[in-house]
Amino acid sequence: MSRLISIVNGTIIILILFCCPDSGWPSGKCPETIRLLIGTYGKTFSVDGSRIKINCLDTGVRPVYCSGDTLSVKRNKNGIEINREHFSGQHFRLDSPGTALTIDGTSYGGTVIIDCSSKKEMLLINEIDLEEYLEGLISIELSPRWELAAMKVQAVVARTYALCQKASSKDSPYHLTTSVLHQLYRGIEHATWKTRQAVKETRGEVLTYNGAPIMAVYHSCCGGRTEDAENVWNTDKDRPYLKGVFCGACTGYDKYFWKLTVPRGTFFKKLSQAGYAEEADDESFAASRRSLANRVLEVTIREKSRNRTITSNEFRSLFGFSEMRSTNFIISETGDGYLQFLGTGNGHGVGLCQWGARYRALRGETYRDILLHYYPGTKLEKWY
Q1: Is residue 33 part of a domain?
Q2: How far apart are CA 333 and CA 340, in angstroms?
Q3: Between 125 and 336, the higher pLDDT residue
Q4: Are 361 and 147 in contact (CB under 8 A)?
Q5: Is the pTM of this model over 0.85?
Q6: Average pLDDT over the chain, rounded to an integer
Q7: 158 and 184: one domain?
Q8: In this model, does residue 5 exceed pLDDT 60?
Q9: pLDDT at res. 4
Q10: Mean pLDDT for the stretch of residues 82-111
Q11: What number of other Cβ atoms are within 10 A of residue 41's Cβ?
């Protein structure tokens, strides 16, 4: 889910996460599809289907049914080549009536749009029914073995997040990526009877604030208490539903506690390469500011002539988000030239805690109660 992946991309994701307007469609409007960026290709890719139909969206020429069920698509100067047959234009739609389209081994429902408007690469965009998208998404974001109630929570959150992104990017070629920049998605083959049931039982249900779908961000495990969004992304303060709340239900996560051990010399070398310290390891540092959730907000590097500060998210990015799993940590020295970071939780800590939601569901809380706990002040509405 929406997670920072580098210092540079940290800036990008702030724009993606918080450009959603606070006024969206009138209640009752049914956004039936979502556009997903599923790949970028410089030269070629393969497509499998049945009686695949190609339609040039620029020229309006009658659709062409391609011979063969496996196609090789190649970019050329004025359009694309499919099995060596040339098609002029910049935008094409591929359909496989009655069956899924498979792109390099991954199956997608709906249609696939090829966008050649860039001089460097082709964008592959999957336009798919929103509910079908959710069926495949849930078992990627959660374990497919999780309980139905937890999956219903995830269905509402993922639907809400997708609709908010759609509202803020309606003029863009696509609304969402399928990576951790937005929501993880690996095609329709990951749908199960349980994910379909979770989507069916929550169909059209959306969390709203001031009449619009909220920015329903989420993470794996908060470590005891969720975090205020403004402490993570330094964004506006007008989204009270993204204020931190007590969780206390996620200790069942098998990686609730984590430890990262780093040689002291390596630690200061990374800081130096990022411009935050000299390379000498005789400097000192400390977590200089924490939030109410006990998460580190800033780390201060103390040098002889000055002090420098680095935000906790930038600090995490230096060591990798999969290694330094959260900003909820303490720092200790081992005495033999190593530093240890001892922490709890996994992820940015804002919004829904997935492991907390699971254990709240196991102890009998309804998916509605869970949603309203993690997003205080919102309403659960039947959007369509």
Answers
A1: no
A2: 6
A3: 125
A4: yes
A5: yes
A6: 88
A7: yes
A8: no
A9: 38
A10: 91
A11: 16
State mean pLDDT over 323-340: 92
| 3-class SS of residue 143 | coil
Find tokens 């990951």 and name the residue.
Answer: 190
Looking at 60, 89, 120, the residue that finishes a domain is 120
Distance of CA 328 to CAs 136, 264, 360, Å?
A: 31, 20, 22
3 backbone dihedrals φ, ψ, rounded to 5°: -135, 150
Q: Domain containing 74: what range?
A: 43-120
Percent of the chain with pLDDT over 70: 89
Element (H, E) at 296: strand 296-302
Cross-strand bridge partners of residue 341: 260, 331
Report how far apart, in Å, the C-alpha atoms of 313 and of each of 88, 215, 217, 286, 325 are: 46, 20, 16, 15, 11
Place of tokens 């929103």: 130
- 332 within a domain of the structure (yes/no): yes
Q: How many other CB atoms are found less than 10 A from the CB of residue 304? A: 8
Last residue of a domain, which of 120, 143, 171? 120
pLDDT tier at 166 (50, 70, 90 boundaries)? very high
Q: How confident is the model at residue 86 (pLDDT cuts 50, 70, 90)?
A: confident
Q: How far apart are CA 125 and CA 36, in angstroms?
A: 5
Q: Quote the DSSP letter at residue 21.
A: -
Residue 247 or residue 78, greater confidence: 247
- CA 343 to CA 312: how far, in whole Å? 13
**Token pair listed for 18:** 């918080």
- Please report, as a single letter, which amino acid is at residue 28: G
Task: Examine the domain organization and report whether 138 and 74 are in the same domain.
Answer: no
| 126: in domain | no
Cβ contacts of 21 within 8 Å, gap of 6 or more = 167, 168, 212
Determine the residue type at 109.
G
In angstroms and rounded to an integer, the radius of gyration of the C-alpha atoms of the chain is 23
